[in-house]
Amino acid sequence: MPLPYYVSPEQMMQDKAEYAQKGISKGRSIIVLEYQDGILFFADNPSSSLNKISEVYDRIAFAGAGKYSEFESLRKAGIRHADLKGYAYSREDVTAKSLANAYSQSLGTIFSQEIKPLEVEILVAEIHDSPDKNEIYRILYDGNISDEKGYTVIGGRADAIKIFLKERYSSNMPLKDALKLSIEALESAVNMKLAQENMEVAVLDRNKNRRKFRRIKIDELTAIIGS
Amino acid sequence: MWNSSFYDFLTSQYPNMLSQSVLKYDGEILTNNASHNESIKNIPFGTTILAMKYRDGVIIAGDRMATEGYQVAARRVEKVYRCDDYSAIAISGAAGACIEMARLFQIELEHYEKLEGMHLTLDGKANKLSLMLRGNLPLAMQGLIVIPIFAGYDLSKNEGRIYKYDITGGRYEETEYYSTGSGGKDARSTLKKLYSADMPEDKAISLALEALYDAAEEDIGTGGPDMIRGIYPTLKMIRKTGIADLDEETIETVYKRMIANRQKSHKKEKL
Q: Where do runs of H (alpha helix) occur along A89-148?
């Protein structure tokens, strides 16, 4: 009987990480940034029906980059987690923190135990009445979780876009400026004009009633930033 | 894998969170025996609800009282719940089971909308409610009945629609108006005499509130307008532009005017 090949744990983890990163870097990017009235989600997405950004609960939204089928099932699991918690306790007890932790746990488990890691990077954001309490969590393919302030980017050219934003971002921007900045940032990374049909835009708007999530459709987008 | 239904997710994964188990006593299933009939009297019941179509859509309303046998259990119970922007559910029957079903149905619709990225059609919502009622049948057979009215604006047909249900989940569409609960028959009598198709909104509101008032006069389980505590029936309008609550001041004004008119005609009778 042949002996199984020995692969060191370090080597195995490194291989998996490289595999996941390679998958994610092929995809397009998503920017999340805090503006005057809430949190803006901006994705470069040529499909108008296969969304990367989604509502999860009253104050919580989700964004996923990487392999669609994988972050889509994570998105659905997140909505089930949130609705179940809100049903068992109360709507106020559903928090981005607990959701982000649940994501981190399951991504971490899959990364260490399955042969193929998930090729995804996800964001969970929650809006609060006072802007300094807003929460943005970024969760990586291996379950690594970090909380971000102001802005963050996931997906393909995340690092380059982050550097672009770092120089230009200021807190308390009106929606129009935040949108323009996001477009410039994404265009700078791909070195080409972004068509408005390829933009998926949504906000968590503090001024809305119970459900704060709202998609900004192309007509409204054109009206805000001009064509 | 589950489909996009929160209710199916609960029934398959967390059945203990739904009260679908059958009540038992010493291993015997409780049915119509004396002790069971006695205990059912100690459960609050919600009473009269109604829905009617009018020119701009559909009105859905209900009184506020819950009763335990011949006692008032609560005076401020809400029986009409908004489901989403274009539909609402009103409930009558065992209050606990009813309120729970309304809450679960609200979550169900929102859950579907979030997972699928689109609304269910009005027929789809009405069917889903029917399935949920069927799930409640074991409890209904033991007296914990839930009888809702579901009403909404059908954006594809451009009209308001009303669905009534029986305890087995049977779903029937009404074309003009419907009222159910302990005072439902009395409210229906008023609606039957005074209803006409395509009523303007103010007339339709007055008629709905008057029907509830008549139900409260004839049926001991139905609460009328409580001027002392300021508790009034609640009413929602569902139009093409979405759902809206009728504010309490307007309801109070309508009732004050109606009572004044009735007092006047009563005095005339005496002369």
A: 96-113
Domains plus CATH for chain A?
26-225 (3.60.20.10)
Point out which residues pair with B54 in neighbouring strands.
Answer: B57
Complex prediction ipTM: 0.91
Of B10, B14, B114, the CB nearest to A79: B114
User: What is the per-residue pLDDT across B22-43, written as a single tens digit (0 to 9) for each?
Assistant: 555 555 665 556 666 677 777 8
Beta strands in chain B (DSSP E): 24-25, 28-29, 45-46, 49-54, 57-62, 66-68, 71-74, 80-84, 87-94, 146-154, 159-165, 171-174, 177-180, 234-239, 242-245
Residues 6+ apart with CB under 8 A from B234: B61, B62, B64, B78, B79, B80, B245, B246, B251
Residues of chain B with Cβ-Cβ distance to A80 below 8 Å are: 6, 9, 111
Catalytic positions of B are 47
Q: Which domains does chain B have, with CATH numbers?
A: 6-17+41-270 (3.60.20.10)
Q: A134 CA to chain B: closest CA distance, Å?
A: 22
CA B243, CA B63: separation in Å to the nearest integer?
19
CB distance B237 to B202 below 8 Å: no
